[in-house]
Structure of Excinuclease ABC subunit B:
Amino acid sequence: MGDQPEAISLLVNHFQAHEKKEDVSKNKYGTLRGITGSGKSFVMSHVISRLDRPALILCPTKTLAAQLTRELRSFLPHNAVELFVSYYNYYTPESFIESTNTYIAKKSSINAEIDSLRHRATRSLFTREDVVVVASVSCIYGLGLPAQYLESASWLQVGDETDPQRLSKTLDRMLYQRPENNWELQRGNYLVNFQNNSVALWPPYEVAPLEIFFDSAPSSPTRIKRILKNASPNPSAPSSSESDALLQELASDPNPDARALEELPNYHVYPARHFVTPQERVEEACDAIEDELKEHLKVLAREGESLEIMNRLQTRVKNDVLSLRESGSCSGVENYSRHLAGRAAGVPPDTLLDYFTAGKDKKDWLLVVDESHVTLPQLKAMWGGDRARKQKLVKHGYRLPSAFDNRPLHADEFWDRIDQAMFVSATPGPDELARSKSFAVDMFIRPTNIVDPSIDVRPSGSQLKDLEREIRERAVKGEKTLVMALTKRDAEDMSAHLIKNDIKADYIHSDLTTPERSDALKALQNDTVDCLVGVNLMREGLDLPQVSLVAILGADCEGFLRGETALMQMIGRAARNVNGKAILYANRVTKSMRRTLDETERRRAKQLKWNEDTGAVPVSTRGSEIKSIFDLFREEDEKVMDAAGMAWAKERADAREKGGKKFRNKLVEAGQVQGVREKKVDGEDGFSPTLQDLVKNLPDLPGVYIWREDKGGEPLYVGKAKKLKRRCGDYLTGKDARPRINLMMKNRVRWLDFYVTPTEHDALSLEAKLVNQYQPPYNIKLKDDVSYPFIACSAGASSDALPRIYSSPRKFDPQLRADVRYFGPFQTSRAIERVLEQLEEQFGLRQLSFQVKFGENKDASRREYMERFEEAVRALPGLIEADAPNGQGGTAADLLFDSDTNESRDLVAVAAVAGEGGEAVGQVLQLRKGVLRNAFSYTVEAGRAARGEEGDGDFAEAMGAILEAHYGSVEDMPAEVLLMQGVDKGVAAEVRKTIKAKTGERCVLRVPRKSGPFAATDKKAMEFAVANAEAAANQAALGGAREEDREKRLAQAKSLQNFLQLPNLPERIECYDVSHSQGEEKVASRVVFVNGVPRRDLYRQFKLDWVGNDDYRALREVIGRRFKRAEEGGGWERPDLVCIDGGKGQLSAAARGLEDAGWGAFRGGGEGGDESVPLCSLAKREEDVFTYLGGGGRGGSEVDCFVPSLVASGDTPGVLLLRALRDESHRFALAKHRAARKKRMLKE
C-alpha cells in the first residue's frame, strides 16, 4: 500500500476537524502531493467515501476527466460517479480581430452523448446524496437556473388523473420534442400512441426510454395505469394488451436479467434542457434588451462613436429580438442570458456548483482539484479571456454590454462557493500551497515499490543516432519510448525521421481530435508503434506502464515547456516501469534542470531506502486501456442498456435504411403526404418571380452577385459563386440555411446584379474588394483582400532562425512585416497545402530544416537549406500558376485586380444581342486602384458583324458609339482605356480630347498587347470585360421577353379595374380561402399577387384554434385579424383588391370581418372612402364574380345589403387574372390542409 493509508488518515482528520470546528487553526483547504503512480486516485476516492458527502472533482482536460471517472467507478461502485464536461464537438467563439477588422461568427457542434452525461450528473445531484461529479473547468460557465429547472420538473405517479394530451403539453413545456417520424425516438423526444393509449418518453439522462400507460374507462377519468422503465423501444407499434406481450416475451428469454423491465410506482421527469425559460420571461427579456439597446445607443452617441457601429448594433439586436419573440431563440442567445434569467448586471450566473446546493437538506460538499498545478491557472484565466474577447465585440457594435454577464465565474466568485477543497498534484504550484497554508500530505512510495526514473543528461549534437539506438534497444524487450519535442512541427518531423529509419513511430499533439489522440495512445499500448513523439499535452495523467524511456529534446530551452514542473511531469511518464529512465538532450544544465535533478535524487534516495528496509520488490504495473470520453459513454451504454433497448437501436437503424423510405412512399400513394414536387411549389418559402426571372437568366459561370433592395439601390449582400445561376437559385429555394440571409431575402431584396469573372478565384478576389468597398449590412464578415489565406515567404525572425515558406491566414500590414512576401490570396487552405506539398517534393526544405535543428552537421545543412530556399521562392509563382486552372492560384487574380496597370483603367467590350433586331450591348467597366468601381451598359446598333453582312465582321461602329456616349456624359475619367478592338481614328482622337479637357491629363486608348510584360494583364482584364458584355447581351435578349410579359400583366390589371369599377389599378391583390375536412385540420390561407405576379414570400397561413366547418366564421375571423393588425400599425401594406374564393356568403363574411376591424368595404361604381377596401369573390361552379355594393367607409350601413352579381362572361384578361388568383389560393390552402392532416395521422 505504500504510504496511502497514512495519507488517507491525515486528510480525513484534517477536513473533519475543520467541519467540527475542533481546531480553528486548521485550514479548510489541503494538498495531496503524490508522485506519479503513488495512487492519488485511490486516496482521493477513500477520502470522499469516509467524509460521506457529495464531491466535485475538477480535471484540466476531457480525456483525463473520462479516465478518472472510470477509475473512481471501480473504487466507489455504490456511488453515483458522473461525468460533466463541455458538450461541444468543436467550438469557435464569436470574436473580432481589430488588426484586420475581421468579425468571426460563432461555430459549434453539440455532441448529444456528452449532453446526456451532463443531464445524468444534474439529475443525480437532485436525487442522491452519494454523488461524485468529475468535471472539466467548463463547469464554471452558466447552466440555467437550478430553481427553474426543478420547478419545471414533473412528478408522475401511478393513479394520477391525467391523459396523453395533458402529458404532451407538460412535456412540451419541459422542452421535449415529438419527432417527425415515429421510428426516430431519441433522447429528449416523446411519442404518443393513441392505439395503445400510452406515451413513450426518453429523458436525456436515461440510457433507454420509459413508457407510461393510461387506463381510460368510459365512466371514470383517465389515469396513469403503469410506468415501465427501459420499456419496449417500439412504442408506436400497436399491441393487444399494453405491455403484457412484452412481459411474456421477457419471461421466456434465456437471459432474463439482461432484459429486466422495471415497473415503477412513480417517476420524476426532469426537463430536456438545462435552460428552461417560460414564454412570459422571454417577453420580459425582450423588453429589457430593447431598453438596454436604447440606453447604450445614447452612450455611444455621447462618446462620438461612428454611425456604422451604431447601425450595426441596432440591426443585430433588433433581428435577435424579433427571432426571440417568434421562436424563443436566436443566434447567440447566450449573450442575452442575463435578461432571460432576470439577473441584475454584474451578478454571476448559476453554474454546476449551484446545483450541489439546489435541493433540500443538502450537505456541504467537497471540491477536489486534480492536477491542480494546471487546473487552477485555468480557473484564473477563464474570466479574463472571456471578458477580453467580448470587450472587442461590444466596442465594435456586435454585442450589447449585457453580453459580459454571459461568462464563467471569476476566481473570487468561485472560491466564495467552496467550503472545503483538496488539491491533488505531483508538482503543486504556489497557489494551492498558499491556500492550504502549507498543509500538504506527501506520498513518495508507490504501491508497486518502483523508484523514480534515473536521469541522464546528454549532448544534443548526436541526439538522432543516440535516440534511434535507445528506441531499438527497448523495442526488442517489448518496451516503449516517449519523445518530447518543443513544437508540433518538430513532433511530426521527428516521427517522419524515425519511420524513415525503420522505427515504428507516430506523433500526437493538440491538432489531432480527441478520438485520434486516443487511437495514437492505444497504438502504443498494443504494440502497433514502439515510439510516440509528442509535445506538452503528454505530461499529466497518462497511465502507460509500457513506457520505460522518456527522451526530452531541447531540455536546455528554459521556459514553460522546459520548466521544473514540466520536466518533472514528463519524466514521471516513465515512473510506472521498473526499467524507467529519462534522457535530457541538452548542451548545458539550466536552473530548472538542476532543480529537477536534485528533487529526483532526493526521492530516489527515500524510495531505495524504503525498499531496502521493507524488502519490497519493484513490480511494473499493468496499466489500463486508454479510453476517450466517447469510449466511456459507449461502454456505459452497453453495460446498462437492456437487450430491448439494444434491439430497438437495431430496429431504428433498419427503419432509417428501409422502413423510412418505404413508409413514406406508402403515404404518398395514399395521398396523405405531399410529394416532393408539390412541396416545392407550395410557395411558403418562395420569392418574387421577378427575382426568379433574374436568376433564371443568369449564366452558369463563376462570378460575383449583389443582392439589392431595389434596382440601383445600396448593396445588401455580396457573394461569390462557382456557378452564379445555381448559387443564387439556392437563396430563392431556401437552401441557404443562414437565418439572417433568409430574413433579408424575404423582407428586403428586390433586385440582383452580377459580374462574370474568368475563374472562380477571380470571383473570390472581386468579392473581397466589393465587400470592402460597399460594406453591405448582411455580410457578417467584412472581408477584404487580406481576409483569405496566403502563401508567405519570410526571412528568419533572428540570425539563428531559418527563412521559411508557410501558409498565412491573412495578409498582414507590410509596415509591420516588411520582411514577408505574399502570394495569393487563395480560396481555400487546401489549395495552399497542395502547392506547399509540391514545393516540398521538389526542394525538401522541411527535411533540411529538421537536419539543421537536430542533425550532426548543422552548418552544412544550413548552407544547403539557404540555397534551396532561394530556388524554391523563384519556382513558387510557376507552381501557383500551374495550379490556377483549378481556381486556386493567386497570380491570375493579381493580374486582374492588383496589377499596377489597373490603377486607373476602363475596359470596353461589346457583344451582340440574339434576335432579329441587330442590337449589341456594350459595357464600360471602371477599374480604380484594383477595385471594380462601376459598370455602365449601353445598347447600340451592332453593325455588320451582328447582321451577317459582308465586311470585316467587327464591332468598330458599336465601339465608337459607346465611347462617344460614355465619355461625353461621365466625369470619372481613366488614365487608360483598354478596347476589345480598334475603333475609327477620328472617334479615338475625339475621346482623347474629351478626357484631356476634363482631367488635363493625356489618356491612352489601346487594344490588349500580345507580348511584353503587360500582355498577361491585358489579356486577363479583357477576358473579364468580354465575359460581362456577353452576359449583359444575354440578359438583354431575355429582357425583351420579360417586357412582353409585363405588358400582358398590365393589360390584365387594367381589364380588372374596368370590370370591377375600381378606383385604382389593382397592383396588390390578396386572395383568401379556407380548407378543412369535416371541421378538422382547418386551414385559412392568403396568397398575394403584385403586378400580376405571385409574391410567395407574402403568402400566409392563419391558425384557427376552434373546431367546426363554419367557413363564414373562419373568413370573418381571418379578414378581421389581418386588417386589425394593419390598423394597429403592423406594417402590412393596404391591398388594392381583396378576393375571396367562394360566393355571396363568403363575400358577406369577409365584409363583416372588415367591419370588425374598423374598416369598410368599397362600394362598386366608384364610391367609397379612403379607408375602404374593394371586395369581390369568384365562385367555383358557375364562375360568377360577386362584388360588394353595400356599406361604405367606417361606420357605414349594414354589410349584408349588397347582393347584385356580375357574371363572368368570356375569358377577358381581368377574369383570367381572378381565376389565377382563386386557383393559386385554393392550391395553397389545400397544400397546407394536407400537411396538417399528415401531421395528425403521424401522431396517431
Observations:
- The longest strand covers residues 931-941.
- The mean pLDDT is 77.
